[in-house]
Amino acid sequence: MDLGITGKWALVGGASKGLGFGCAQALVREGVNVVMVARGAEVLQQAAHQLIANNVHSTGPEVLFVPADITTTEGRAAVFATRRDFDIVVTNAGGPPPGDFRNWDRDAWLRAIDANMLTPIELIKATVDGMAERGFGRIINITSSAVKSPIDTLGLSNGARSGLTGFVAGVSRSALAGRGVTINNLLPGAFETDRLRNNFQGAATKSGQSLDAVMDARRKTIPTQRFGHPDEFGAICAFLCSQHAGYINGQNVLADGGAFGGTY
């Protein structure tokens, strides 16, 4: 299927690895020019070179990378100094650490809200009017399945991402939708990423079990009996960014192998 987005420009956060890289890779495969952003300069550069090397299009697309912390004003300024206008924006920042809410002070909450709520809002604010003027725009916020099924130890993430979800529910249904701009949230469950493995390692250390035992126990709770792969997450993201997804707006698209047990 031709997604109809060849030649568009996309901004992808957290793009050096994991789900962000999966999204960037899927978009490049569709002929989208991509600006990749992540904090680690060396890993980001390697990821960008990998996308360029694997490019199947003979004449492009362009792959640019900006090593910056997009959750800061300075980081966002560096991104927009590289390119101002984008047709597609994939917001993505690492989730806050797990823990006991009794141990989180005000600063911990502000860091979580800044990274996982306010930064996506700032990126939306900076790009949607240009998208509307051009008659096409796609914004995908990578949030978490915890928005629908909260995890007690991930309270910082539950709170900050739920705040973003409420904001998107309103702004996505504004006049922007009538001008070709859609805004959706993509909710990953358990995907094979460094963050997932680190969380499992913490659980293994705390419980005294082996890492393999903890991971296997989690797999068995998922109807598909496996973890997701960043490539398939990227494919979902690319479709939501496509011309064919113009009637999908203001939605929370859950990709978790059927782990969420609710009807709605």
Question: Would you mind describing this structure in some detail?
Answer:
By secondary structure, the protein is an alpha/beta fold. 44% of the residues lie in helices and 14% in strands. It has eight helices and seven strands. The chain has helices spanning 18-29, 41-53, 73-82, 106-134, 155-171, 194-207, 211-219, 230-240; strands at residues 9-13, 33-38, 63-67, 88-91, 137-142, 181-188, 252-255. The protein has a seven-stranded parallel β-sheet with strand order 3-2-1-4-5-6-7, sandwiched between helices. The two termini are 29 Å apart. The mean pLDDT is 94.
Structure in a nutshell:
With 264 residues, the protein is an alpha/beta fold. It has helices spanning 18-29, 41-53, 73-82, 106-134, 155-171, 194-207, 211-219, 230-240, and strands spanning 9-13, 33-38, 63-67, 88-91, 137-142, 181-188, 252-255.
